[in-house]
Specification:
Bound molecules: adenine
Radius of gyration: 16 Å
Distance between the termini: 6 Å
Shape: globular
Largest sheet: 5 strands, mixed, barrel
Number of strands: 10
Strand order of the largest sheet: 5-9-8-6-10
Structural class: alpha/beta
Low-confidence stretches: none
Strand content: 25-35%
Number of helices: 6
């Protein structure tokens, strides 16, 4: 069983519409749609925006649906200077940029308990997502995605994420899902299409390009799941 989590309607509706023998359940206010997508058993959910919603949804997928892998898909703000709207970042690792116990001498993003800053994505999932995106002819990079409960558009936020994490893209869920998967020993991957470049233009670019970017991520997930062996 593969779990697929998006935060917003635009990030999951195109996937849910393609599920065969769909079964819907509502748990903790989140709707879970399970069934078959391109021949694979999946459970898909629109978690809502932010780290807590993403974490609750990932944990439910693991406990209630026995998800053996969780993929987080959707849109993000590009931080890497080579990225334009519509480009793809596949994470090889994720971090929670708003986790801060630096007053105790920890590095930015350090997660006490897991005792690390970065959660490593599953290499097999990452390679399948990268290859599938490239097959569509989209500029794709593999790199670091950081998550926090903040929309990133101000210069000082942007510079902090690049300076402290060398981050390629910013969003609000991926690292929370990585955190839950690490706690449960479950594989995970994150793919994001750029809706904006996490700068002064983002407040206009995000609503303008969200749908286009989200449908690109949906298209890649649809093709990629058929190549996964879960
Ligand atoms: N998702 C899409 N764009 C984003 C941004 N600029 N900051 C955080 N999450 C995002």
């Amino acid at each position: 069983m593969i779990g697929i989590i998006g935060a917003m309607e635009s990030e999951v509706n195109g996937l849910k519409a393609s599920v065969e023998n769909a079964e819907i359940r509502k748990i903790a206010s989140v709707e879970f749609c399970s069934g078959t997508l391109n021949g694979k058993e999946v459970v898909i959910a629109e978690a809502g925006v932010g780290k807590v919603n993403a974490a609750v949804t990932a944990q439910i997928m693991i406990l209630e649906y026995g998800a053996e892998a969780v993929i987080n898909a959707g849109v993000a703000g590009g931080l890497n200077a080579t990225l334009k709207v519509g480009d793809i970042v596949v994470a090889d690792k994720v971090a929670e940029h708003d986790m801060d116990t630096t007053p105790f001498g920890d590095p930015p993003g350090f997660i006490t308990g897991l005792e690390r800053v970065y959660m490593e994505c599953d290499e097999g999932i990452t390679q399948i997502l990268k290859k599938t995106a490239e097959e569509l002819g989209v500029h794709t990079i593999v790199g670091t995605i950081v998550s926090g409960d903040q929309f990133i558009c101000r210069k000082e936020q942007r510079e902090k994420l690049i300076g402290e994490f060398n981050a390629d893209a910013a969003e609000m869920e991926g690292a929370a899902i990585g955190h839950v998967c690490a706690m449960n020993g479950v594989r995970f991957g994150v793919i994001r299409a750029m809706s904006d470049c996490a700068n002064d233009d983002s407040i206009v670019d995000f609503p303008t390009f969200e749908l286009k970017a989200a449908s690109r991520s949906v298209e890649i997930i649809k093709r990629a799941v058929s190549k996964m062996d879960h």
